[in-house]
Amino acid sequence: NTFGYLYAQGVQKKIQKFKNVNLAADIILKLSKKNTIIPKLDKNTLVIHMRLGDVINLFLTKYADQVVGKVPNLKKILYEIQEIQKQSKSITKILIITAFHFGKHPFKHGETEDSTAFLKYFISRIPSRFRVEIKSSTDPDIDLMYLSFAQHLILSCDSGFGILAKDINMCLKTRRHSKT
What we know:
50% of the residues lie in helices and 16% in strands. It has helices spanning 3-14, 21-34, 54-59, 74-87, 111-125, 140-148, 160-179; strands at residues 45-53, 93-101, 131-136, 152-155. α1 (3-14) runs antiparallel to α2 and α6 crosses α7 (160-179). The longest helix has 20 residues, at 160-179.
């Protein structure tokens, strides 16, 4: 079963609204035990969720100012990398979690090229002292697990998926700290 299916079932049973972060965190923990793809993310890795696909076309158009928050903000991300770097000198690797998100729309010619070009441009702006790795999956559960277990996390934009991942990430960090 997928995260979405399990989450919807849990919410129905508890008769609560969408934002039950503890339930979401429990489901991610359950799914991660069944999934051997997700490695342990250490304190040396900074994970960045980079939303690409449909939003890149908006970003590259004259309407970019109308969709602020829904498209990657490169200045914000690069600033956050610098701030995290100041706090934790041990970070040596940046792991970019991305998918060319087009929802249910079929790919149109040029869409993946725009996203790839945007990603290459972003990577060229990252300080060279970092080793950069990209993970892209068609399974949103895998993306969500990477983001949920990150020691250091940056979101490229304020999309619903990213916000959910950040909430789960914070919940799991709080649980880890309360155990120590």
